[in-house]
C-alpha cells in the first residue's frame, strides 16, 4: 500500500481521477494558481499536484535537506483575500496541533507564500480512505467495523477533551494506513470543527450551518448549538455504513436527505445486513433526533458497541480454499431513477442465481456484490467446483446482455483464493482474507473476466 497516498478531504478538495488528471470543480481558472514542479514552499520543493478543489490544492512535496515527503495544502488565491477563510485555515492547524493525537493527521508547518496565500505542511498518509475501502469491499462484519472505529473514537475522544467538536465525521475523512485485525487509521479534516475551549477562537461562528448532508445531525441542519453528541450522531451514521455498505439516508437531493435526518426514524442495519438487533439499538441511540437521547460521549458509544459485538472467539477461524464471483453494475448509465431501479433488479437477479448454486453473499453494495463458496477438499472435486462456478459466472454476464427488461450492463469477474472462514452456529462463514481483496482481481470494464486461479485445471 505504500505506493498510494491519501489526500486530505478538506472542504472542496477533489481526488485525482484514475487516469492521473486532477479535476477542478469551480471553473474559476484555479489552474493559474498551480505551482510547478520544484517550486519552493518553505523548506519543501513541490513534486506534483495530487488534488484540487473549491477551497485549495494539495501537493506532494519533499523536504530539500531531509528528503522527507509531505502533503502541502495551499489556499486558492481568490480566497486568500478573505480574512475569514485565512483565519479558518490557520485555526484548523492550531486545533489539530493542540489535540496532538497519534490517530489524527499531523501538521508539520504553517506559512505564507510570497503572493500571500497561506499553506500548511501535513504528513503524507499511505493507504486509502475508509470510504474507498467500503466501496471496494462492501459491508464489514460488526467485529471488523469495531476494529476500525476504536482508533477513530480514540482520536475523537481526544478532540472532545480538548474542547473540539469535529462536525464532519465520515468515512471519507478517515484514512486507513493499514488494514487487518488491528488497522491503523488517521482522522482527517478539522476544517469545519467547532472549538469550545476557553480563550480559543472557533473555526466557525454560532449559527453557521456547516458539514456534510449525509452525516449531519439535526442540530447542525437547523444551525443550532453543537457538542460532542453531534459527533456521536455521525458515528451512528458511520457504523450503519460500515456494516451495511450504504448510508442510512439516501437521495440525489441534499434537501431530501436533510429532511430525512430531521424527520425520519433511522433505519435498522439488520434490514440490510445479517447483524444482531443489539446493533440496531446502538445505531438508533446514536441517531436520536434529540442530543439528550443519544450516548453522552464517544466512550459510552464505544462501550455499547463492544457489548453488541460480543467477546472475540479465538480459535474458530481458519483459511480455506474458496472461489468468488464479483458482479458489478456499470455505473455510467445510472443517471435516472429508472436506471437505478434496473440496477437493483439486476443485482437481485444475480444474487438469486448465485445463492441457488450454494454461494453466500457476504458483501453487497448498491452497485456490486461478492458471492463466495468454499471449494471441496478433494482436489478433483475442487476442479469440478471451479468449472461449475466459471460457467455460472459466464451465464450471469450473458444473461445481463440478453435480458432487455434489466437493460443494465453487468461486469462479472471470478477468482479462486484462500478465504478467512469463521465457524458459527449456522456453519462456516466467509469473512475475509485474500479472496475479499477484489481490487487485485476484478477487471473493470470487461463483461466477463476469469483469473488463472479460477480456471486452474478446468480447461477453460
The CATH topology annotation of the largest domain reads as Transferase(Phosphotransferase), domain 1
Rg, Cα atoms, Å: 24 Å
What fraction strand?
15-25%
How many helices in DSSP terms? 11
Short note summarizing the structure:
By secondary structure, the chain is an alpha+beta fold.
Secondary-structure map:
Elements (H helix, E strand, L loop, with lengths): L4 E2 L6 E2 L25 E2 L2 E10 L2 E8 L5 E7 L7 H17 L7 E6 L5 E6 L1 E2 L1 E2 H8 L4 H20 L2 E2 L8 E5 L5 E4 L6 E2 L22 H4 L6 H17 L9 H10 L13 H10 L11 H12 L7 E13 L7 H20 L3 E5 L3 E7 L4 H24 L7 E15 L2 E6 L15 E3 L1 H4 L5
Parallel strand pairs: 18-20
Antiparallel strand pairs: 1-9, 2-4, 3-4, 4-5, 5-6, 6-8, 7-8, 10-12, 11-14, 12-13, 15-17, 15-18, 16-17, 18-19
Describe the protein's architecture and organization:
With 460 residues, the protein is of the alpha+beta class. It folds into three domains: 5-126, 2-Layer Sandwich (Phosphorylase Kinase, domain 1); 128-309, Transferase(Phosphotransferase), domain 1, CATH 1.10.510; 317-455, Alpha-Beta Plaits (2-Layer Sandwich), CATH 3.30.70.1230. 32% of the residues lie in helices and 24% in strands. It is built from eleven helices and 20 strands. It has helices spanning 83-99, 130-137, 142-161, 218-221, 228-244, 254-263, 277-286, 298-309, 337-356, 379-402, 452-455, and strands at residues 5-6, 13-14, 40-41, 44-53, 56-63, 69-75, 107-112, 118-123, 125-126, 128-129, 164-165, 174-178, 184-187, 194-195, 317-329, 360-364, 368-374, 410-424, 427-432, 448-450. The strands form five sheets. Strands 2, 3, 4, 5, 6, 7 and 8 form a seven-stranded antiparallel sheet that branches. Helix 5 runs antiparallel to helix 7. The longest helix has 24 residues, at 379-402. The protein starts with a strand and ends in a 5-residue tail after the last helix.
